[in-house]
Amino acid sequence: MVISTVNVNGLRAAAKKSPGFVDWLSASAADVVCLQEVRAEAAQLPPEVASPPGWHVALAPAAAKGRAGVAVYSRVEPDAVRVGFGEAEFEASGRYLEADFGRVSVASLYLPSGEVGTERQDEKERFMKAFLPYLVGRREELRKQGRDLVVCGDWNIAHREADLKNWRANTKNSGFLPEERAWMDRVFGEAGYVDVVRALFPDQEGPYSWWSYRGRAFDNDTGWRIDYQVCTPELAGRVVEGRVERYPDRAGRWSDHAPVTVRYQV
């Protein structure tokens, strides 16, 4: 099973670009594609995006128009689809969608981005507080069923210093706060999940998956690694390969995030 995840930074805009999302999807070898920051409902998407040939599409738009939104595209129809993770505040926020494919559940996550000293950061912290117990409980539930989970998406937290270029300048900024990094420690500690790409590249800076549109961040590879595939340890033991599909040049970018693709032996 090949799984890709990418924050599209507005699916309608990404689809209009050339090359863009539609070109990437048509060339992709993925079996499942997780999208974040879709910012659209199905009726607002052109047919080649809402229902591309050969793909099944599950979409969870946000109740707030033009915000958030996650989706799962798959070659085969999911056995089941669930929106949200049981927390009322975030049920219609377009931030979590989970789909079952045989022994593997695949989730698309868009964790709030936050901003220190604002309600956005408070929202992020509430989401994190509610989401960790879900991860713990869901892992145990699936373990009893002999099944696995991979949570793909924009986690909006760089876990380690190796996960962003200018880490010293960002220690007081949302996305690299000590308490956010400690929360990620808990995801990989008490919750028992595995950061797939970091496990594949333990000693490498990056590989980054997001670069600001400002200045020459992309050209200089001044990025952040905030897009993850996080999975149960049993599935992590069956990872074959993984990579960030970095754009060849600035002109070829159709999002400020690049796809993260992993091949699992299932």
Low-confidence stretches: none
Determine and state the CATH class: Alpha Beta
CATH topology grouping: Deoxyribonuclease I, Chain A
Number of H/I helices: 7
Which structural class matches the secondary elements? alpha+beta
**Biggest beta sheet summary:** 6 strands, mixed
- CATH superfamily label: Endonuclease/exonuclease/phosphatase
Cα end-to-end separation: 6 Å
> Overall pLDDT, averaged?
97
Q: What's the β-strand tally?
A: 12
> What would CATH call the architecture?
4-Layer Sandwich
What is the 3D shape?
globular
Tally of separate domains: 1
Widest sheet: strand order? 3-4-2-1-12-11
Order of helices and strands: EHHEHEEEEEHEHEHEHEE
Strand content: 15-25%
